[in-house]
Amino acid sequence: MKPSIIEESLIESIQESDVSKLADLPAWMQDLREKGIEYYQKQGLPSTHDEDWRYTNLQPLSQIKFRLSESTHVKSEHRIDPYRIPGALELVMVNGHFVADYSRLNQLPKELTVTTLDSISKGNSESIQSLLSQKEPCNSLQALNWAFLQQGIFIHLQKPLTQEVLVHLIYLNGQERESIVSFPRNIILLEQHTQLTVVESHIGIGESECLNNGFTEIALRAGAQLTYCKIQQENLQSYHVHQARVQLERDSRVHTFSFSVGGKLTRNNLNITFQGESAEAVLNGFYYARQNQLIDNHTLVEHLHPNCHSNQLYKGILRDRGRGVFNGKIYVHPRAQKTDAYQLNKTLLLSSESQIDTKPQLEIFADDVKCTHGATIGQIDPDELFYLESRAIPKHQAINMLSRGFANHVILQVKQMKIQTYLNALLDHVLFRS
To answer: What digits encode the pLDDT tens for the residues 203-212?
Structure first.
């Protein structure tokens, strides 16, 4: 489908910026950008006529004059310290640009490479090229990420570490007067039998409209283990579209956690592909939408090989006119015998005007599997609310306390205490102060 608004689309708005100021790229990456522009110009933005986007309307994006920003300044009132995780290695990006002065990489182990993507790409790294390159984008949002590739982050763990390491990617987005756009691109590569924890935070600074269109590519070699947590807490004028793709080889393990509480419109895509036997994936998430927010979570788990296990639990709280979308699909291919796959979405509605569209899906083409899925939608139990009010707890506070208990179960699925503490503090802030 080619929308009639293509002449006023994002591609035209962004091209008005001086894109020549982007980092010089090697020939293969320039080719990647050209493919992205060509694909997007043919397809345009997804519309609500597309099944994957039927509940999420992106057309307002085409009416906003987004610009690429060169600003890397953070005002004193937008201090970075509250967003830091104690003891973590940190890379800070402001409006898509790496800022060394804000980052903390002093204790980087020799087995671990953490650097900007453009510094690697100039060396024409074959591993980077193979992970970045595809025949064509999966969708037009990914095509935009290709077309306007800025500084990304490359994380490469080559050998097992002697101690636990946490890498924190902090993306600060926004300006006071301009509507800006950024296209972060991250690559995480773990070699055989290595283990790492990565947190990716997207934070809004200022009150202007922003578009953050990111893509994170993750490849786990045989026996590797990764904990990957993505946090989105941008301002309520922001648009956030993020896609993560995880490739699991034999005996590898990934534990993902998605935490979304900000943004006017948020779309999280998470694709897991089992490329070897006896691998495992845990996909957990929490979302909280208030006012007129829309938070849309799409997951796709492809079981291509036998004896693999996947487990999904997403919980959400919706209040005011907040809307949520959950679409989770488990696809079991014919050769993926002995698959064990589980999926559950639970949503708590705090208002008669809040809304959730949930669609758990199973497509099974193997006959020796164990797969279940489900969804629940509910409200605050009036008996529980009465009990708290009868103890002189104000109604609004009682509702927040019960909501906190609802969310607590999924937060506890994060086993790293530093991350769990960080998420608990953020959750308390949005629940009790919003």
So the answer is: 988 778 889 9
Residue 142 neighbours by CB distance under 10 Å: 21
Q: 38-75 pLDDT, tens per residue?
A: 888 888 888 899 999 999 999 888 788 888 877 777 76
DSSP 23: P
Q: Which amino acid is at 5?
A: I
What is the C-alpha to C-alpha distance for residues 82 and 246, in angstroms, rounded to an integer? 29
Task: Identify which of 238, 227, 373, 352 has the alpha carbon closest to the alpha carbon of residue 295.
Answer: 238
Please count the other Cβ atoms lying within 10 Å of the Cβ belonging to residue 152: 26
The amino acid that residue 159 corresponds to is K
Phi-psi region of 305 (alpha: psi -120 to 50; beta: other; left: phi over 0): beta
- What is the β-pairing status of strands 294-303 and 265-274? parallel
User: Which sign, positive or negative, has the C-alpha torsion 142, 148, 150, 154?
Assistant: positive
Q: Please, where are the H alpha helices in 199-310?
A: none
Q: Which of 185, 161, 181 is nearest to 173 (CA)?
A: 181
Contacts for 131 with CB less than 8 Å, ≥ 6 apart:
187, 189, 217, 219
In 3D space, the residue among 260, 201, 258, 189 whose CA is nearest the CA of residue 226 turns out to be: 189
Question: Contact at 8 Å (CB) between 109 and 161?
Answer: yes
Asked if 114 and 91 count as a contact pair (C-beta separation under 8 A), the reply is yes
Rounded distance between C-alpha atoms, residue 98 and residue 350, angstroms: 40
Task: Please give the Cα distance from 341 to 16 (Å, whole number).
Answer: 47
- 57-63: list long-range contacts, CB under 8 Å, 24+ apart: 58/265, 59/3, 59/5, 61/10, 61/211, 61/239, 62/3, 62/5, 62/8, 62/9, 62/10, 63/8
Residues forming beta bridges with residue 225, ordered by sequence position = 195, 253
| Strand pairing report for 89-94 and 97-98 | antiparallel
Other beta carbons within 10 Å of 75: 9
**Under 8 Å between Cβ of 289 and 324:** yes
Strands (E), 11-126: 67-68, 89-94, 97-98, 112-116
How confident is the model over 331-351, as pLDDT tens digits?
A: 999 999 999 999 999 999 999
Phi-psi region of 96 (alpha: psi -120 to 50; beta: other; left: phi over 0): left
Name all contacts of 404-409 with Cβ < 8 Å and 24+ positions apart.
404/428, 404/431, 406/315, 406/317, 406/346, 406/348, 407/286, 407/288, 407/315, 407/317, 407/431, 409/315
